Amino acid sequence: MAHQVALYKPEWLTYPQNPAELSPVIWMPSFARDAQGELTVDGTAVSSLVEEFGTPQYVFSESTFRARAAEFRAAFEQAFEAHGAEVSVYYAGKSFLTTAVAKWAEEEGLCLDTASGGELALAMRAGVAGGKIALHGNNKSEAEIARALTYGVGRLVADSVPEVQLIARVATELGVTAPVMLRVTPGVHASTHDFIATAHEDQKFGQSLVPGTAALAGLSQAELDQLGVTADDAYATLAAALALASESIDLRGLHCHIGSQIFEAEGFGKAAEKVLTYMHQLNERFDVVLPEIDLGGGYGIGYTEQDTPRGSAEIARELAAMVASTCRAVGMAIPHLSFEPGRSISGPSGITLYTVGTIKNVSIEDENGDTRVRRYVSVDGGMSDNPRPVLYESDYAVTLANRAPAGEQLLSRVVGKHCESGDIVIRYCYLPADLTAGDVLAVPATGAYNHVMSSNYNYLTRPPVVATSQGKPARAIVRRETEEDMLARDLGLV
Ligand code: LLP
Q: How far is the CA of 339 from the centre of ligand 1 (A)?
């Protein structure tokens, strides 16, 4: 996903033979062009969306979201059923969450993964059943844990020994039993940007499976003795011993998530093998049968032509086969499996519409020292509505949306309106030579980690989220932020 460093243009970007074409790797079937070449979303022309809701605007296809949610659920269910195992699919709400979206996920038969008290509050507001909600996070507050337990969430995913202790205490005080999964670190280095890789040892998530790390938790020898844990054990083993010893915790099993925007099956397979093998050891060690394993999410999507996303059926089949073969090898029945796809469901469901403003050519030198022109196209949003290019050097595609992008195409860079030179929306793209101020651009695959990571940098108001569905009028599910909203928190000279 990291962009290829190129002075002028990366090799993967080629001159478009048919600039009006919408690559199916990036654009889902909800997005199409009408007879005049204008982009439509679930049958609604972009010009009418812009007229009604303005730009920048996140457009989110309910039809695509529901179809992808249903498809992922069915793919995992079928693949594991073939091995006689059961599956739950949790939609990772951190990728894109509104009350409407939480309900759509629930209606499509998915559970909901929340990552904070705020996401949990949204799920509660949406009326998602407690038993279908998971609460994640590496630093849950006492209040977040209490809220989750009071609402009756289906699971809390504990990320450390202090968290297991805190959950046990809060559950005891509330007089309830806390369903807990332990997040472990399988030690797999996923091939993705370092900031979104989460299974190697030297980062904040998960609990180590490496023997000899139990001592790192800092418990006294007497405490370790009482739990039957030695200094040679892994940190995760200590966490499991603590959870099993608590009368207020129902230890459900193990969780891992190796990272995000990953294309290769290999990392997922290695992680599954490690976690299943370790769970088998835990079962033997403590004479229990932990019933569940959660293998997280992280399946990559197409942002540009260089990406190679795999279909849900292929991902599910491969994972099911790897899980089944590991369980066979260690001699254990396949536990209940769960998965947490976020981006792969929400990402391709959303696009962002921008209006073109100033256009400016600059002279640059290419790799050979030759002088070239780069066209800078400014739009009315930028890093406040999509921080991913700045954070992860992410590449995106773009297309002219309000009319057909015909004729000569020029190498361009789409930039935002923020006071920062890194405020790039599309680092490398081709756009029509006749592009002009007032044209509308559509950036695909912005459904995940855009709206939820948006900010008010430079006091820009955040865009609305407009939902489209086949056969239904487009409507805002999140309204545009107003300057009044933004200024309301400024308390003045107090
Ligand atoms: N489960 C857990 C425990 C996670 O931490 C995540 C993502 C997911 C599931 C969903 O992963 P997905 O299927 O969406 O890849 N802001 C970054 C991504 C951060 C991912 C955080 N955790 C980005 O824009 O790429």
A: 12
Which of left, alpha, beta for 100 (phi over 0: left; psi -120 to 50: alpha)?
A: alpha
Q: Is 196's C-beta closer than 6 angstroms to any atom of ligand 1?
A: yes
Using a cut of 0.85, tell me whether the model's pTM lies above it: yes
The residues annotated as belonging to the active site are 419
Task: Answer whether 389 contacts ligand 1 (Cβ < 6 A).
Answer: no
Q: Which atom of ligand 1 is nearest to the CA of 183?
A: 3
Q: What confidence tens digit (pLDDT) does each residue in 362-378 have?
A: 999 988 899 999 999 99
Ligand 1 pocket residue status of 134, Cβ below 6 Å: no
CA distance 31 to 27: 6
Q: Judge if the beta carbon of residue 344 lies within 6 A of ligand 1.
A: yes
Give the integer Cα–Cα distance in Å for 60 and 37: 21
**CATH class for domain 31-61+349-487?**
mainly beta
Phi first, then psi: give them for residue 212, nearest 5 degrees: 95, 0
Beta bridge partners of 350: 60
Task: Give 19 Cα–ligand 1 centroid separation in angstroms.
Answer: 32
- Whether ligand 1 lies within 6 angstroms of the CB of 374 is answered as no
- Pocket lining: 111 vs ligand 1, CB cutoff 6 Å: no
**DSSP letter string, 164-175:** HHHHHHHHHHHT
> Which amino acid would we find at residue 187?
G
pLDDT in tens, 304-329: 999 999 999 999 999 999 999 999 99
Which CATH fold topology does 82-341 show? TIM Barrel (3.20.20)
Task: Judge contact between 81 and 321, C-beta under 8 A.
Answer: no
As a whole number of angstroms, the distance between CA 330 and CA 100 comes to 43
Q: How many Å lie between the centroid of ligand 1 and the Cα of residue 431?
A: 31
Query: Are 380 and 425 in contact, with CB atoms under 8 Å apart?
Result: no
CA distance 14 to 27: 18
Q: Which residues of the chain have pLDDT under 70?
A: 1-5, 190-199
Residue 324 CA to ligand 1 center (angstroms) comes to 25
Mutate to test the pocket of ligand 1, among 116, 139, 343 (most ligand atoms within 8 A of CB): 343
Amino acid at 274: K
* Beta pairing partners, 262: 299
What is d(CA 292, CA 90) in angstroms, rounded to the nearest whole number?
14
pLDDT the model gives residue 1: 45
Task: Take atom 19 of ligand 1 and give the residue whose Cα is closest.
Answer: 196
Domain segments of the chain: what residues?
31-61+349-487, 82-341
